[in-house]
Amino acid sequence: MDKKDTGFPNMYSNADPSMNISVHSPQGLAPLSPYLNFDPAYLQQSQPEFIFPEGAGRQRGRFEFAFSQIGGSCMVGAAIGGVGGLYNGFRSTSLAGQTGKLRRTQLLNYVMKQGAASANTLGVLAVMYSSFGVLLSWARGTDDEANTVVAATATGLLYKSSAGLRKCAVGGGIGFGIAALYSLWMSRDRIQQFRQMNPASRGE
Known about the structure:
The chain is about 60% helix and about 0% strand. By secondary structure, the chain is mainly α.
């Protein structure tokens, strides 16, 4: 089929050498934009920048993290308690020979009761730990591993303070151990860098 003559001259043709525009930068680093006619290589490829309120930090502080920690602890406690309650319920109802609706009701009772108890326990621990952490951050003006270890140790001591000195010390020791392991795990990159920069620390 022949092309119809529209009456307009053929201004743009693929045979025109002036239309052969490269879609890559001269350095071959980045493709040119065929729409905006600029080289993206000249743009700053940096991290996204955000506008922060005056006096606000660039990272969320311990007070902001406290809400997610408390809520997460409650949900984790409820899940663990619910699984434990379901297991205990199956075992108890099987030994008692319960079946049908009675067994389902007993299973629900076990799940709800043990799940609520575990959620309450972990929620209280999270509230105490977050409170100590926030107070230490405000008092010291910084948020580091020392705050984490002290807050966890104080939480264990306070939680078991009514059970006698021995159990109080055990609770503090458990809190200290968990916080120390967590701090070491979170600081593993800095520890590795320190060991690489100091051969004497590796016994060389």
